[in-house]
């Protein structure tokens, strides 16, 4: 048996500790084997090599099925070798027989969290606890390790935008590739930033309401009102203003009513009840 810290002989007495508890922090691959099993002897060096190569990203637990018949029976082992992968205390995958190394790698890689993802998770925990600066420092560390990670860039953009740094947030969004730009979080953040920019030079809402009292078909006032309502979180009435603009004049400000609705749909996401309601209204109006 290797002296590797990532490879363990496991039986009924220490299965809870070395497999189930350990799997809460990293995947644990359990290899059921026996001395008489030639395929078992064939894959042992390969599994040991992977344990060393992955350097703690998973651990290998070896169970002698002859010596640990109760444990083998509990898991219904009927053929050797059998490999069972545990993560977060649960059986998540398994393989029977002397499968090739590429297949074992693929099984492991589905459940191994990269170092950048681990840092990102810690950063978001800090952010949720109100530690924005610490979160940002961790996120930048993760980005340095994984500079092409689009989800990471969008997360950093969300944090810095929340701190008032819209310039850096926009630069991060602009650095995304085509696939990154299609991420829901990127679409929502860009829409939120665009709507916020539109609020900068708006008249007071009371002034806009006065104009609409004098002329309910003042399209510029309806558009401005929709932006104020969006800023207040009154999305449904904001959408109603935009829909009214479309009913009166589709050509106003290069179809500002429809474009405004689509921007709100992007910002709120398809599951939002107001989005679902006004998508139907928009479809009815257009058809």
Short key terms for the protein model shown above:
single chain, 287 residues, alpha/beta, Serine Threonine Protein Phosphatase 5, Tetratricopeptide repeat, 3 domains, 15 helices, 5 strands, 10% strand
Describe the secondary structure blueprint for this structure:
Elements: E1 7-9, H1 15-21, E2 28-33, H2 38-54, E3 59-64, H3 69-74, E4 82-87, E5 90-96, H4 101-109, H5 115-128, H6 132-145, H7 150-162, H8 166-174, H9 178-181, H10 184-199, H11 205-214, H12 219-231, H13 235-248, H14 256-268, H15 273-286
Parallel strand pairs: 1-3, 2-3
Antiparallel strand pairs: 2-4, 4-5
Helix pairs in contact: 5-6, 6-7, 7-8, 7-10, 10-12, 10-14, 11-12, 12-13, 13-14, 13-15, 14-15
What does this structure look like?
By secondary structure, this protein is α/β, with parallel strands linked by helices. About 60% of the residues lie in helices and about 10% in strands. The longest helix is centred in the N-terminal third of the chain and has 17 residues, at about 40-55. It has helices spanning about 15-20, 40-55, 70-75, 100-110, 115-130, 130-145, 150-160, 165-175, 180, 185-200, 205-215, 220-230, 235-250, 255-270, 275-285, and strands spanning about 5-10, 30-35, 60-65, 80-85, 90-95. It folds into 3 domains: about 5-110, Glutaredoxin (3-Layer(aba) Sandwich); about 115-180, Serine Threonine Protein Phosphatase 5, Tetratricopeptide repeat, CATH 1.25.40; about 200-285, Serine Threonine Protein Phosphatase 5, Tetratricopeptide repeat (Alpha Horseshoe). Strands 1-3-2-4-5 form a 5-stranded mixed beta sheet, sandwiched between helices.
